[in-house]
Structures are given as structure tokens and as C-alpha cells.
């Protein structure tokens, strides 16, 4: 075949082959909205610098790990947003509570601070203690000394324990603990011996705050998207079905218009190859495909077919001598259209509004692959096929 | 007919203006992206009775949608509703202690994010439109044909938003994505038309327009058919993938409007430009 010797066609073949190999060996990962899991975006109440952001992401990671989630990803987005990805099903209620709290902890006896979260040296997981269900912890030597100092002679007073300025427990100080000696072992009880689920969540939130320390600023939950793995599988399956049926419908339309497989097949194959290129690209950069990315792939496929129709019609219209100029004009149209699409998508990409970055990335990548790799090859192929026709 | 083309040219633009008026009167449905709040979708047993939930939460919207294989319960709650309590009640009603074992999805938008929605959405669409207009002008470097392309794109967006208002499709991140896609698709056919009319030397003006129309119709119809298929398949199989459904409807409306804008308005302006404006110079 003469076509196989053409540089543009060869380039497309090599790229598609490379994409297939990457997809097979490197795999494609799906975003949590397709594979199941939760995405959470937190917003800090004020902008923070890089150092504080590093502290925040570290604390959040440790808080999630503390609550039995090991495979989480926590990363900063700009200087006021933190994104969290949890690729497994999890108890959202508890997670919301443990990550959204700032975690500033302190104990007061008659309005004097006895110790703070910084004085806590060791925390035990929530469980039944002698005084009821709650969290046991141990103060550092310094912390215990401070507590001994403040509590001296104050038997019968209440010890007010605050988390984020909310009173969480106020046990009465027994006189034998107010003897001015060091008593590092402390307990916060949240319920009697029969805790409800809510009490457990509360205890885990306290445990997490004591264990991971407090965040430098307050954070608010800006966005949560959670999907169970079974429904995610359903999404992947039905997007594929929808994609294939839409593809066949498009095949039917261009089949009716051009009536010859010599035109219809190259259009469809080129379109499919662009999808492969996008998937290969996603695999290489480790981009996770989410629903928005799938919408982007559909958009690209639509543009791809449109542009190939332009090339085909210009080739058909150009008389034998003028084919070259016709194709040039086709590419003028295609480059113009591609440039406008990229121009229209770029604000999304630069501003990364909401969750549409995946959409922008796949669309822009698809358009670029189209104009530089697949459509030049398609032009050569269609010209060759029509000449013989 | 030939003499009346100027009148015809204006009609789609009037439609777009009416659409703007309609939207400003009728307003747009707001998704939780805009209003903040929580949206839960869960597959429920057939003929699931949610009346007790409805009674318990009067401020929450409950809606059942059916697909070929399952029934979905859609729940939309504003920011004032205690979601933890709602989740617990829902789990009890569905006899489970963990909702994530079911076919379940939940989206929550906090008020900090939703309050920025209009600003960010308007910025995205505004900049997209501005960048597109600059690129179009750079491509053709002549004011009138460039203006025609930009006018067509603006009218398409206006009519698509009007359609959203009529059919109650909520404004959301996905419909904003659809509007941006519409800019791309709309301009594709207009650029093709303008290039053919202005750059092809052979054939008459009418011949060039007719040839472009053949190409452009094929382009638009393939996309329209693909979006219609996407819409029906998604509604039939997974109503929960609302994002894809909304995108396909908005594009459908916009692309159908684009047929008018391209082949009546844009063609009309080009015809006027080639036959009268250019000659008089």
C-alpha cells in the first residue's frame, strides 16, 4: 500500500499504536465519580501560604488515615482550596466531621487553661473507659505539670473541655486528682457504657483532633461528590453503550450522505483513533477519567467528524488540478475552528472553575491531536481513495 | 424570496432577543451548584413508598424517575436541611445501615462555592466568547463577515438559554460546559461557510452557498443525531447521569437554533456583504 509510506499516515499509525500499548500496559484510571468513592473540596476561611498549606494537607491526610482510610489523596488547589479524593466507600458523616473541624482543644478549670491539644502526648482509640464511653489520652510531662499546677486544691470544680470553642465534656475534678501531683492520664467521656452511633462519631472526631493536632485556619466544606462503586460501574457501562450507539447513529448519517464505505469507514476509523489518542494521553499523564472527561471525549468526537466532513467535501469539490488548494482551504477552516474551540475552552482550564477541568483538558487535547495528527492523515487517505474511485 | 432575504435574516436574531426577554422574565431553574445544598440519588425497590420521608422533610424535594431496569429516587435538599439526619432516615427507609452499599450518589455544594457560581460561570462564558470573537476576527480580518459569525454564536447561546428556561433545565456546571461546547460547534459551520463564500473563486455565489449548505447540514445533523441518541440512552438507562443528559439537551436546542442562524442569518449577511457592500466600495 502506497498510503502506508506516507509520513502523515505513518505518524498517525505510530501514535495510535503507542496509545494502545500505553492503555494496555499502563491502564486507564477512572475518577471517583465513575469508580466509586468521594471527592471533597475544602475551602480555607482565609488564604494561606505554602507552608501552612503543607501543614493543612498533612494534618488532613493523617486525620483520614486515623479513621481507617489509607488510600486517600489530599492536595492543595491554589492558596485557599484543598481537594480530597477517597477512592472507597466511607462513612461520609464521620469524614465530614473529622476534616471540617479545626481541632483546637483546651481544658479549663475556673477559666484558667489547664492544658491544650499541644500538651497531649498519646491518644487511645475511642472505647469503654472506667468512666464510660470516650477517649483516653496521656499528657506530656510539661502538660501534666501545668494541669497539676492549675488544678491544685480545686477538687469538686468542673474541668471544662473545649473543642473548637464548643464544650464537649465537663467532668468534676475529684479531690485526689487535685493534690498538685502529676496525673498524666486523662479521659474525655461522651456517653455512658452504651454509646449511640452519634456518640461514636463524636468520640472519633475528638480522637482525631487530639491525635492530628489543629489546623492553622478554619476550613469549610465547599463540595462533596460521593458515589457508590456499583452506581459508578453503571455509569461507565452506560456511557460506553451511549457512546457506541451515538457512533453508529453518526455512521448512519454519513452513510446516507456519502453512500460509499470508502468515505464512511475512514471517517469513523479516524474518529475512533482520536478517542484512542485522548485515552492514551490520559493514561500517560495519569489523568483520571471522570464524567466531565467523557463529555469532553464526546465533544471531540463530534468536532472530529465535522472536520472530516469538511475535508471530504473540499476534496470532492476540488477538480483534479485544484485538489491541493481545496485541501489547503479545508485546513484553513479546520485550524480556524480548532482555534476557536480552544479559545472557548481555555477559560475553564485557566480558572479551573468547579469540576470542569477534566472537560477542558480532554477537549483541548482532543482538538490538538485532531488538527496535528489524525486529520492530516485523514486528508491524505481520503485523497488517495477518491483518486482511485 | 431573493428580495426578502434581508427580512428573513433578521428573524432568527429577533428570536434570540425574544429568548433573552423570556429568560429575564421566566428565569432559570437553579441546580444545587447555584443554590448550594445536597442532591442524593439512590436506586430504590419498585413502587418504593417515600411518603413518610416526604412528610418528615417538607422542605426537601423527592422525585422518582424510572429507567429500563430500576427506579431512582432523587432527593434535593437546600442548605438548611440536616443532611446527616436525612441520610439516617433514608437508610432506615431502605433497610440498610450503610447507604454506600446501595447504588447511591450524593453531591453537596457548600455556600462558599455556590455563591461564586454566577461570577465564575459568567466569567467562563464571557471570556470564552471574547476569545472566540478575537480568533474569528484574526481568521477573517474583515469586520462584517466576522461580525456575522460572532452574532450567530451569540444568538445560539441566547436561544439555548431560552430553551433551558422553557424546559426547566437547571443552570449548573454541566450546562455551562454545554454552552461552551455550543460556541465551538456553532462557529465551526459559520467559519466553513464564510471561508467557502469568501475564498472560493470558482462557482457563483449561490453555488458556493449551496455547496456549503450541503457540507454544513451534514456536520450539524451528525452532531444533532449523536446528541439525541445520547439523551435517550442516558434517560433510558441511567437517569442518574444527569450531567450527560443536560449537556445533550442544551446542545440539541443550540444546534437546532444554529441551523437557522447559520443558513438564514449568516448567509443573509454574507450575501449582502458580497452583493452590495463590497460592490459599492
UniProtKB/TrEMBL annotation, chain A:
It is a multi-pass membrane protein. Part of the protein translocation apparatus. Forms a complex with SecF. The lineage of its organism: Archaea, Methanobacteriati, Methanobacteriota, Methanomada group, Methanococci. It comes from Methanococcus voltae (strain ATCC BAA-1334 / A3). It holds the Pfam family SecD_SecF_C. The gene is secD. Involved in protein export. It is found in: Cell membrane. Residues 218-374 form the Protein export membrane protein SecD/SecF C-terminal domain. The keyword Transmembrane helix applies. This is Protein-export membrane protein SecD.
TrEMBL record, chain B:
GO terms for biological process: intracellular protein transmembrane transport; protein targeting. It is a multi-pass membrane protein. Residues 100-274 form the Protein export membrane protein SecD/SecF C-terminal domain. Coiled coil: none annotated. Pfam families: SecD_SecF_C (PF02355). The chain crosses the membrane at residues 7-25, 121-140, 147-169, 175-198, 219-238, 250-274. Its main location: membrane. It is found in: Cell membrane. Keywords: Cell membrane, Membrane, Protein transport, Translocation, Transmembrane, Transmembrane helix, Transport. InterPro entries: SecD/SecF_arch_bac, SecD_SecF_C, SecF_arc. GO terms for cellular component: plasma membrane. Involved in protein export. Belongs to the SecD/SecF family. SecF subfamily. Part of the protein translocation apparatus. Forms a complex with SecD. PANTHER family: PROTEIN TRANSLOCASE SUBUNIT SECF (PTHR30081:SF8), PROTEIN-EXPORT MEMBRANE PROTEIN SEC (PTHR30081). This is Protein-export membrane protein SecF. The gene is secF.
Amino acid at each position: 500500500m502506497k498510503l502506508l509510506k506516507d509520513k502523515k499516515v505513518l505518524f498517525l499509525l505510530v501514535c495510535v499504536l503507542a496509545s494502545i500499548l500505553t492503555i494496555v500496559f499502563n491502564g486507564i484510571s477512572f475518577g471517583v465519580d465513575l469508580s466509586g468513592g468521594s471527592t471533597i473540596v475544602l475551602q480555607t476561611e482565609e488564604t494561606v501560604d505554602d507552608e501552612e498549606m503543607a501543614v493543612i494537607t498533612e494534618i488532613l491526610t493523617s486525620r483520614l488515615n486515623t479513621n481507617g482510610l489509607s488510600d486517600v489523596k489530599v492536595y492543595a488547589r491554589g492558596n485557599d482550596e484543598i481537594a480530597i479524593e477517597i477512592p472507597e466507600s466511607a462513612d461520609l458523616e464521620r469524614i465530614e466531621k473529622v476534616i471540617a473541624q479545626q481541632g483546637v482543644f483546651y481544658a479549663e478549670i475556673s477559666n484558667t487553661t489547664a492544658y491544650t491539644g499541644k500538651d497531649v502526648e498519646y491518644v487511645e482509640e475511642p472505647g469503654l473507659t472506667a468512666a464510660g464511653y470516650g477517649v483516653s489520652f496521656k499528657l506530656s510531662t510539661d502538660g501534666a505539670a501545668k494541669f497539676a499546677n492549675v488544678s491544685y486544691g480545686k477538687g469538686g470544680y468542673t474541668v471544662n473541655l473545649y473543642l473548637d470553642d464548643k464544650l464537649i465534656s465537663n467532668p468534676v475534678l475529684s479531690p485526689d486528682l487535685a493534690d498538685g501531683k502529676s496525673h498524666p492520664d486523662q479521659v474525655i467521656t461522651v456517653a455512658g457504657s452504651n454509646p449511640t452511633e452519634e456518640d461514636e462519631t463524636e468520640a472519633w472526631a475528638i480522637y482525631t483532633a487530639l491525635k492530628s493536632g489543629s489546623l492553622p485556619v478554619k476550613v469549610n466544606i465547599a463540595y462533596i461528590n460521593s458515589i457508590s462503586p456499583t452506581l459508578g460501574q453503571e455509569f461507565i457501562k452506560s456511557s460506553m453503550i451511549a457512546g457506541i450507539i451515538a457512533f453508529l447513529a453518526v455512521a448512519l448519517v454519513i452513510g446516507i450522505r456519502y453512500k460509499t464505505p470508502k468515505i464512511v469507514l475512514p471517517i469513523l476509523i479516524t474518529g475512533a483513533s482520536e478517542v484512542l489518542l485522548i485515552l492514551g494521553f490520559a493514561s500517560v499523564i495519569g489523568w483520571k477519567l471522570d464524567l466531565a472527561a467523557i463529555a469532553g471525549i464526546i465533544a471531540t468526537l463530534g468536532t472530529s467528524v465535522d472536520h472530516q466532513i469538511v475535508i471530504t467535501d473540499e476534496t470532492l469539490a476540488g477538480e483534479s488540478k485544484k485538489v491541493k488548494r481545496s485541501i489547503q482551504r479545508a485546513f484553513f477552516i479546520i485550524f480556524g475552528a480548532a482555534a476557536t474551540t480552544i479559545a472557548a475552552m481555555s477559560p475553564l482550564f485557566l480558572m479551573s472553575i468547579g469540576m470542569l477541568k477534566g472537560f477542558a483538558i480532554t477537549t483541548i487535547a482532543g482538538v490538538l491531536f485532531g488538527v496535528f495528527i489524525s486529520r492530516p492523515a485523514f486528508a491524505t487517505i481520503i485523497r488517495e481513495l477518491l483518486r482511485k474511485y | 424570496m431573493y428580495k426578502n432575504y434581508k427580512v428573513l435574516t433578521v428573524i432568527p436574531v429577533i428570536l434570540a432577543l425574544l429568548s433573552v426577554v423570556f429568560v429575564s422574565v421566566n428565569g432559570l431553574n437553579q441546580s444545587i451548584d447555584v443554590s448550594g445544598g445536597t442532591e442524593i440519588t439512590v436506586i430504590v425497590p419498585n413502587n418504593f413508598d417515600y411518603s413518610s420521608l416526604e412528610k418528615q422533610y417538607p422542605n426537601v424535594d423527592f422525585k422518582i424517575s424510572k429507567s429500563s431496569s430500576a427506579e431512582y429516587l432523587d432527593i434535593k435538599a437546600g442548605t438548611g436541611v440536616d443532611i446527616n439526619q436525612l441520610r439516617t432516615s433514608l437508610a432506615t427507609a431502605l433497610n440498610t445501615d450503610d447507604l454506600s452499599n446501595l447504588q447511591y450518589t450524593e453531591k453537596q455544594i457548600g455556600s462558599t462555592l455556590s455563591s461564586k457560581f454566577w461570577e465564575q460561570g459568567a466569567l467562563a462564558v464571557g471570556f470564552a466568547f471574547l476569545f472566540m470573537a478575537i480568533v474569528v476576527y484574526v481568521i477573517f480580518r474583515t469586520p462584517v463577515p466576522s461580525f456575522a459569525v460572532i452574532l450567530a454564536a451569540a444568538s445560539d447561546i441566547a436561544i439555548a438559554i431560552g430553551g433551558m428556561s422553557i424546559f426547566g433545565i437547571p443552570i449548573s456546571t454541566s450546562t455551562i460546559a454545554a454552552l461552551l461546547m455550543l460556541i465551538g460547534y456553532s462557529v465551526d459551520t459559520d467559519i466553513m461557510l464564510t471561508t467557502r463564500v469568501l475564498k472560493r473563486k470558482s462557482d457563483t455565489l449561490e453555488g458556493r452557498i449551496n455547496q456549503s449548505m450541503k457540507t454544513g447540514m451534514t456536520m450539524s445533523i451528525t452532531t444533532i443525531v449523536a446528541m439525541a441518541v445520547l439523551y435517550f440512552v442516558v434517560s433510558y438507562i441511567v437517569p442518574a447521569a444527569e450531567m450527560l443528559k443536560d449537556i445533550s439537551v442544551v446542545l440539541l436546542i443550540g444546534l437546532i437554533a444554529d441551523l437557522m442562524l447559520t443558513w438564514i442569518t449568516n448567509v443573509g449577511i454574507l450575501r449582502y456583504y458580497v452583493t452590495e457592500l463590497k460592490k459599492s466600495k
